[in-house]
Design goal:
The protein is α/β, with parallel strands linked by helices and 300 residues long. The chain is built from 13 helices and nine strands. Helix 1 runs parallel beside helix 6, helix 8 packs parallel to helix 13 and helix 11 packs antiparallel against helix 12.
């Protein structure tokens, strides 16, 4: 396969809260796009931008040498890639699947092996940056797979992200994303707990953010999610259910490599509490509301 470049045709499967703006950025960058999604109506806007609809992953695969998937979990990726009407049933030898979902590293390596038997490459390229990063094309992309194949698809990745890092062989991108989620979850819990402590101690939480953001406690979570926590704005940039799923993958992988993760395990319980309250589609910053209740503070 030659270097992928604007003007080439790419298949895109999965037009959810992240996939839709990512696919839009591919069109804006000049790629021709064929798309498929489980729910057809979610494709309406991208079709108006010039993308073309196909009824199944196998149909896309028959027309594209490069396909991008952005799906909910390991089972969905396995079905779309290896299922009865999956990509593997239609893609030509030498083709490339770029999976940008966050899934199990073990599943990634298994899917990669199956595709390899067909002389098809899998690049695992999960992302960080939330909906805002997806819209702005500024996602951080963590890449695993064959490095030579990765180099061929860099122009497509650059249409969706501004920070693209090759991490190593198959599964390395997914493992890196799990590292990212450990840091996000623990830091987010710490920020929420600190802001509730500040409120209960009689401080103005907004002034606390101003006082701390430039020092050693400064972080994306403090500066970006902190004000939303204080305002009680729990609209999703990244949903609770997705964080819960990702931390489940962290737990699964930590068992495989025998890695104790005490802080991550505790942090995950707060997201699980939100799940139990029926708030799975709230933004992850809603963790603040759980800690407020633990401190006997009325919800804001």
């Amino acid at each position: 396969m030659d270097l992928v470049k604007p003007g080439d045709t790419i298949g895109f499967i999965g037009l959810g809260i992240m996939g839709k703006p990512m696919s839009e950025n591919l069109i804006k960058a000049g790629f021709n796009l064929l798309v498929h999604n489980r729910t057809r109506t979610r494709a309406d806007e991208i079709l108006e931008m010039g993308a073309q609809w196909r009824d199944s992953p196998i149909q896309l695969a028959r027309e594209c040498d490069v396909l991008v998937t952005m799906l909910s979990d390991s089972l969905a990726v396995r079905d779309v890639v290896l299922g009865e009407k999956g990509i593997s049933k239609g893609i030509s030898k030498g083709g490339v699947v770029i999976d940008m979902s966050t899934i199990s590293p073990k599943a990634t390596m298994e899917i990669s092996e199956k595709l390899g038997e067909l002389n098809v490459s899998l690049i695992d390229a999960p992302v960080s940056g939330g909906v805002a990063g997806a819209r702005q094309g500024s996602l951080s992309i963590m890449v695993g797979g064959d490095e030579d194949v990765f180099q061929l698809v860099v122009p497509a990745l650059e249409a969706m992200g501004s920070d693209i890092t090759y991490m190593g062989g198959s599964g390395s991108g997914q493992k890196t994303k799990l590292v990212n989620q450990i840091m996000v979850a623990v830091n987010q819990n710490g920020v929420a707990e600190a802001l509730v402590f500040a409120e209960k101690a009689g401080l103005d939480p907004n002034k606390v953010i101003e006082a701390c953001k430039g020092g050693g406690a400064g972080s994306f979570q403090l500066q970006n999610q902190g004000p939303r926590m204080i305002e009680g704005d729990y609209s999703p940039g990244f949903m609770v259910k997705h964080m819960e799923k990702d931390l489940g993958l962290v737990s699964e992988t930590s068992e495989d490599i025998i890695s104790p993760l005490p802080f991550t395990s505790l942090a995950s319980q707060f997201y699980r509490a939100l799940m139990a309250e029926g708030k799975s589609e709230y933004g992850t910053q809603a963790i603040h509301s759980v800690i407020r209740r633990l401190n006997s503070i009325e919800p804001n």
